[in-house]
Design goal:
Length: 308
């Protein structure tokens, strides 16, 4: 077995909205999800967030409307038949311009959002091309700096979903020594198919960050339970996941049959947690898990003061 590498990841905060990670080059129109200083296509330092880009476009459209109204006002004044008519046209035009300006300010937020939706909807193909180039760039630095490659893939995964990126991230994580203080993910890495490296990663997460083991992960493990059992450390992985599931009453109840298959292997602290859960909720539907726990408790921990 190869020795895992101790690493440190740069701080990463998932954005509120996935498009917050997306930027566009004002010069060539290329999209990117990476924190680049310059556009890798044209080399210009002209990358801006898509939100700011869409807002600027919306602002230009509003200014164009105002200028058009002002132009029509000047034309009407110029072709006025009399001084009175010219004054009325000018006053009416200025009033209309003021009303339009006021209305535009009131609806600016909606206009910005509409411009952003239009930008993303009509450029989806170009966006995908940019994200694929990002992925290829991340893979290209893998041999020189696997940590940097992982960090780039982590950035891209906010927008470029799918098994290919997730599988590459799992493969990289397999070579790293995981710690509790690391910024780790779980459900974002789940695949549609069985992957031994993912199963091993789930087992490691169950050790260092069991709070990341949630419904989707529990369902994935049970869907491929047979394949995991056939792995060298399969039982240890399944036992670790079962131990993580007793962290919450809801998970323990929903997955009581799964936990029951590995309850004999649970370490003392996880078994004690489960026993206390059952003791505090004796009338819940434990599907026979409560009886199994009682038998193990009597046989294995009968004289243990923590179970008295």
């Amino acid at each position: 077995m190869s020795k895992k590498k101790p690493v440190t990841f740069r701080p990463f905060k998932a954005p509120r909205y996935s498009f917050d990670k997306l930027r566009i080059c004002r010069r060539c129109g290329r999209y990117t999800a990476l924190n680049e200083e310059r556009c890798t296509k044209c080399g210009k330092a002209s990358l801006v967030s898509v939100e700011n880009y869409a807002s600027a476009r919306a602002g230009r459209k509003m200014h164009t409307r105002l200028l058009l109204v002002l132009l029509l006002t000047l034309v009407s004044v110029y072709f006025g038949d009399s001084t009175l008519q010219m004054a009325l046209c000018g006053a009416g035009g200025l009033l209309l311009t003021g009303l339009l300006y006021y209305t535009q300010r009131k609806v600016r937020q909606n206009e910005n959002l509409r411009a952003l939706e239009h930008l993303l909807a009509y450029n989806i193909g170009i966006i995908k091309e940019g994200l694929e180039l990002n992925r290829q760039e991340a893979v290209s630095v893998l041999r020189e700096n696997d940590v940097l490659a992982y960090e780039k893939l982590r950035e891209i995964a906010i927008l470029l979903r799918g098994d290919r990126v997730a599988r590459q991230r799992v493969a990289l994580l397999h070579g790293f020594q995981l710690r509790k203080d690391m910024d780790l993910e779980m459900e974002q890495l789940l695949l549609r198919e069985f992957e031994p490296l993912l199963a091993e990663y789930i087992g490691e997460i169950a050790k260092v960050r069991r709070d990341l083991i949630k419904d989707r992960t529990l369902r994935y493990v049970q869907a491929y339970e047979t394949q995991i059992r056939q792995m060298d450390r399969g039982i240890a992985i399944l036992t670790g996941v079962a131990g993580a599931a007793v962290r919450m009453k809801r998970y323990a109840l929903l997955h009581s049959r799964f936990i029951g298959r590995y309850v004999h292997e649970l370490p003392k602290d996880r078994f004690l947690r489960l026993a206390r859960l059952i003791e505090a909720n004796p009338y819940e539907p434990w599907n026979g898990l409560d009886q199994t726990v009682a038998e193990i408790r009597e046989f294995k921990y009968r004289w243990d003061p923590e179970f008295q």
